[in-house]
Design a protein that fits this description.
Keywords: Signal. This protein has two domains: 6-140 and 328-356, Rossmann fold (3-Layer(aba) Sandwich), CATH 3.40.50; 143-315 and 364-374, Dihydrodipicolinate Reductase, domain 2 (2-Layer Sandwich). 34% of the residues lie in helices and 22% in strands. 48% of the residues are buried. The chain has helices spanning 18-28, 44-53, 65-73, 93-102, 117-128, 144-154, 182-187, 190-193, 198-214, 307-311, 323-342, 357-374, and strands at 6-12, 33-39, 83-87, 106-109, 134-136, 161-169, 218-226, 237-244, 249-255, 264-271, 274-279, 285-290, 296-299, 381-382.
């Protein structure tokens, strides 16, 4: 064990779990974090097998998360875990995070933060009474060109934002036979995923990206969520009209039944002077367009980019960076946040560019507001939290 590294435990992410492996790769990419313990499966043999494959001490592969936190809290401070990465299905996010905070451990959770908005608000209240840090892996905020787009808007390159269009299209749940995979089955189960599949899984990413880049907040919406594949009880497609707190209008489209689509997340923001466009499948490109002028292509690693974009870039220009690196940027920033906290510095998520409990609450509020609005005939609904 390297005492110079931030020590991480993980709950979830055992054999056959896609996102757990992604989190572990991201955590170790910059050499600042070491995985020291975990509960990788509810089945003890699978948990131990995963831990051994990862080179962990068998004594630190625990049977359940309560035991993990209790036993780790009893270890010397120089050895015990410092934060937990939560990579389970949604219904377990809140109890694990709440237990970790109770034992004084920091939390980095996969999104959405909880099963319900009420749980997210409870978690926010719990955090306010502690010194524990909380981060949320809203992955797409980690891309360098997303940070550059945010900087351009914040410094006035677009002028006043007038319209936002964000689209997230996938095709992996287009047919009934797509439901048999482990990744699909729990997302389509309301007991594990919550009241929404599509909006809870990818729509919340699109909403977060729109707010993060624009610097605005949704304050009203009109939603039309659909269950396209017969036999499902949760949405697999939807469109949401948005109003933002500066008066701008927007459209959010999310679908998991768009045949042929892979992971097509696109953002376009139109201002009074210019517009920007970014697409996750070409993440090194950011388009800036002004009226009656040639479009400008801004590339990762080229030219004079903002500090946040430069910090998030690891390779020379022309060497593509993507999903793993974006994930890693959140882990690196969270590690730096913990290091500052350990030095008795007052830390805020925004100072380290880490999505936190505010984004967690707004994400859950988006999901619940969209589902409620879709079920009613009233056109516009205020965006409410609690």
């Amino acid at each position: 064990m390297d005492n110079n590294k931030i020590r991480m435990a993980m709950v979830g992410g055992g054999e056959g779990a896609f996102i757990g492996a992604i989190h572990r790769i991201a955590a170790r990419l910059d050499g600042q974090i070491e995985l020291v313990a975990g509960v990788f499966s509810r089945y003890p043999k699978k948990c131990l097998s995963t831990g051994q494959q990862l080179g962990l001490d068998p004594s630190r592969c625990y049977h359940d998360y309560e035991t993990l936190f209790r036993e780790e809290a009893q270890l010397p401070q120089s050895q015990r875990m410092q934060f937990v990465a939560i990579v389970t299905p949604n219904h377990l996010h809140f109890p694990i995070a709440s237990a970790a905070i109770k034992y004084g451990f920091h939390v980095l959770s996969d999104k959405p933060a909880t099963l319900t908005l009420a749980q997210a608000l409870m978690l926010q209240n719990q955090l306010s009474d502690t010194h524990c840090l909380y981060g949320l892996t809203q992955t797409y905020t980690g891309y360098p060109m997303v940070k550059e787009a945010r900087h351009r808007i914040a410094t006035g390159a677009l002028g006043t934002v007038k319209k936002i269009v964000v689209e997230y299209s996938q095709g992996w749940l287009a047919n009934t036979n797509d439901e048999t995979s482990k990744q699909a089955s729990w997302r389509l189960d309301a007991k594990k995923s919550g009241i929404s599949c599509c909006m809870g899984d990818i729509g919340v990413h699109a909403a977060n990206l729109a707010e993060y880049v624009s610097g605005l907040e949704v304050n009203a919406l009109c939603a039309d969520l659909n269950t396209v594949v017969a036999g499902r009880t949760l949405d697999d497609d939807g469109t949401v009209l948005l109003r933002f707190n500066n008066g701008a209008k927007g459209v959010l489209m999310a679908s998991q039944i768009a045949v042929g689509e892979e992971n097509n997340l696109k953002l376009r923001i139109y201002g009074e002077k210019a517009s920007i466009e970014w697409a996750q499948m070409e993440p090194n490109n950011l388009w800036l367009r002004e009226q009656n002028a040639p479009a400008q292509l801004i590339r990762t690693g080229v030219g004079n980019l903002c500090p946040a974009a430069s910090k998030a870039t690891r390779t020379p220009a022309g060497h593509p960076e993507g999903y793993l690196e974006a994930f890693a940027n959140i882990y690196l920033n969270f590690a730096e946040m913990i290091q500052a906290h350990c030095q008795n510095n007052a830390v805020q998520n925004q100072d380290f560019d880490v999505p936190g409990i505010k984004e967690a609450v707004r994400g859950m509020a988006f999901i619940e507001n969209a589902v409620v609005a879709s079920a009613q005939d009233t056109k516009w609904h205020p965006f409410t939290i609690g």
